[in-house]
Specification:
The chain has 76 residues and is an all-beta fold. It has strands at residues 3-4, 25-29, 34-37, 42-47, 50-55, 59-62, 68-71.
């Protein structure tokens, strides 16, 4: 199931900075842009149906309403 994340769909100028350990987010979408940055370890990002392993100092930009998810195999 794909989740609509209303908390990230508020206004055009809404922003949050959150640091997660061992990120796990099911498939979801929202109206705001999203930037994900891997500070340490590895995270698997599925953005628009394309899956990639992100490692230290890599980032991705998720566009509004683009379906995406994140997971961690060992540590992120």
């Amino acid at each position: 199931m794909i989740l609509y994340q209303e908390s990230n769909s508020q206004s055009n100028y809404n922003y949050n900075i959150v640091i997660y350990d061992n990120v796990e987010w099911q498939l979801h979408f929202h109206k705001n842009f999203e930037i994900v940055y891997v500070m340490d370890g590895e995270a698997i990002a599925n953005i628009g149906g394309s899956e990639t392993v992100m490692t230290n100092n890599q980032f991705a930009i998720v566009l509004p309403n683009q379906i995406h998810s994140y997971s961690t195999n060992s540590r992120s």
